[in-house]
Amino acid sequence: MLSEYVARYVALHRALGYRFRIQAGLLSLYARFAEARGDRAIRTDTALAWAGEAPSPQQRRNRLLVLRRFALALRAENAAHEVPPADAFGRAVAERHLPHIYGEEDIAGLLQGAAALAPVGGLRPVLYATLFGLLAATGLRISEALALRLDDLTEDGLLVRETKFRKSRLVPLHNTTAAALARYLVVRRRHRAAGPFLFAARGGPLPYDTASGTFRLLARRTGLRNAPGTGGPRIHDLRHTFAVRSLEGCSGASAAEVARHMLALSTYLGHAHFTDTQWYLHATPALMAGIAAAGEAHFRAGVP
Length: 304
Known about the structure:
- By secondary structure, the protein is mainly alpha-helical.
- The protein has three domains: 2-75; 104-221, Orthogonal Bundle (hpI Integrase, Chain A), CATH 1.10.443; 237-301, no CATH class.
- It has helices at 2-15, 21-36, 44-51, 57-75, 104-115, 123-138, 142-147, 175-190, 208-221, 237-248, 255-269, 274-278, 285-301; strands at 153-154, 157-160, 169-171, 200-201, 204-205.
- A three-stranded antiparallel beta sheet has the order 1-2-3. The protein has a two-stranded antiparallel sheet with strand order 4-5.
- Strand 2 and strand 3 form a beta hairpin.
- Helix 5 (104-115) runs antiparallel to helix 6.
- The N and C termini lie far apart (70 Å).
């Protein structure tokens, strides 16, 4: 019964244009948990027990709030559904997540770890080494990379179709990135991977949870993350790193040249607004040194 309610709720949101991927996964987990307890409607004690199984406070609050919105929608039709309190696991403090800016050694360690995955000689290690290398080299969103089809790889670059802001764009590739993708395609053909997706699993796209879970596994093996639930560098931080390293390459450029570079970077990343790109930029020693040098030059030139 609850599974049917979840299916209807998810279908409604997707019909309205929402991807609703994470929420759908969480609500499906809750429905199985509640139905195993014999619940036919949402119960506060079951909701708190399920949300409480998450490994971190943030994830427990997120589970509860996703379920609470679902409960409010169902209670509008049937008062038998209970709505759990929003603050049962405390209130989240609004703060910006500080991204991890990967060094070259970090990325090399991740790719080496991916290449060493089992089975030796199989497609899996090459697939993940290529996927994570592509994210580091292009700043693509993980969702964009997983949605790529074989015919999206063109001579001019990657065609990224209707992404987060319903915009498509062409992403030019460095020669080394294009060569890595070509080597991956050779291995992919040798293993006769089925389906139209560049990074495929059982004929469909590689699932986000599978890719993200493998990334966390490799991050722990290489010492970038600690035990589950403790947080640490994320797969999305590769996108932040790409933006920061790109700006570091402007060292010594004029203000006008930096402005043009930022506009190009914003377009390359597929942002709807220039301010979205600014959100990805963070202070690093190289950037701070460049800012200090520019300030010193202005001071010596007597520029107000």
